[in-house]
Write a structure and sequence with these properties.
- With 261 residues, the chain is an alpha/beta fold.
- The protein has a single domain (5-259), classed as TIM Barrel.
- It has 9 helices and 10 strands.
- The chain has helices spanning 32-42, 63-73, 90-99, 112-118, 124-135, 155-162, 185-188, 192-208, 249-259; strands at residues 5-10, 47-53, 78-82, 102-106, 140-147, 167-174, 212-216, 224-227, 232-235, 240-243.
- A 10-stranded mixed beta sheet has the order 7-6-5-4-3-2-1-8-9-10, covered by helices on one side.
- β8 and β9 (232-235) form a beta hairpin.
- α1 (32-42) runs parallel beside α2 (63-73).
């Protein structure tokens, strides 16, 4: 229990995009007071980083009030937001820059047709570039990419685009066919041979890049766990290990350690 944890908190399952590879857990979201209770419970462990995600976290109506509460309780905590950027305007961006340490966007392709096929829409890239221009050099930026059959040949183009910006990290995930995403396994899932091909491409890019580039094949780090909108928690193996609204986080993490054996 001396580990410093990486926590991904999916505060809402609402989203304004329809990505077919998304495996968000659809459930009722907690109230602001319940979410404050969740964070108070989390404060009993050492956290390295807390990521607010979704769904689309900017659709959670009390987001910035919750962030203010988190900052009051733990000013030094590294706070990240994962957003598709679709509703970001100047005012929202100003608040993000003031309140968060890292902003994460998704770029899965530089091709509009590919973006439409995977469910992000034809204008996703245009909007993301606009947002990157707004926040470049004002906040740490991370890019996420889900590798799948549609974009497996797009990585050089994505790299050429994002290297123009001050990207601190580019994280590439292998498509994971669980929950709703399992319906699209045949369309999106890449086999081990294709995955090895991607890894070789990424290794080549690492040699010529200043940004951190990681390929996450299936699992997150051992010291990570995921909180869902209803307070339920899953470990890095996507096993449910408790609910933070009715059980102390220290008790839940004992179950997490046992389930990772």
């Amino acid at each position: 229990m001396n580990s410093s944890y990486i926590v991904v908190w999916n505060i809402t399952s609402k989203c304004n995009e329809n990505c077919k590879f998304c495996f968000r857990k659809k459930c009722n979201e907690s109230t602001l007071e319940e979410n404050k209770k969740i964070f108070d419970n989390l404060s009993n462990i050492k956290m390295h980083r807390l990521t607010l995600s979704g769904g689309e976290p900017l659709l959670y109506k009390d987001l910035f009030e919750l962030v203010n509460y988190i900052r009051t309780k733990n000013p030094s905590l590294i706070l990240t937001i994962n957003t598709n950027g679709k509703i970001i305007d100047d005012d929202i961006m100003k608040q993000i820059i003031e309140k968060f340490d890292i902003i994460t966007f998704s770029i899965d392709s530089t091709n509009d047709t590919t973006n439409e096929k995977i469910g992000r829409g034809k204008k996703h890239l245009d909007k993301t570039i606009k947002i990157l221009d707004m926040c470049n050099n004002k906040i740490k930026i991370k890019i996420n990419t889900v590798v799948n059959k549609y974009n497996i040949d797009d990585f050089e183009e994505i790299y050429e685009l994002i290297k123009k910006y001050s990207i601190s990290r580019w994280k590439i995930f292998r498509f994971l066919p669980i929950r709703d995403a399992s319906k699209y396994k045949d369309d999106f899932y890449i086999d081990d041979i294709a995955s090895d091909k991607v890894e070789k491409i990424i290794d080549t890019m690492k040699l010529k890049s200043n940004m951190i580039i990681n390929y996450n094949k299936i699992q997150e780090y051992k010291t990570s766990f995921f909180i869902f909108p209803d307070g339920s928690i899953e470990n890095n193996r996507l096993q449910k290990i408790g609910n933070i609204l009715d059980t102390s986080i220290t008790e839940i993490l004992k179950l997490k350690e046992n389930s990772n054996l």
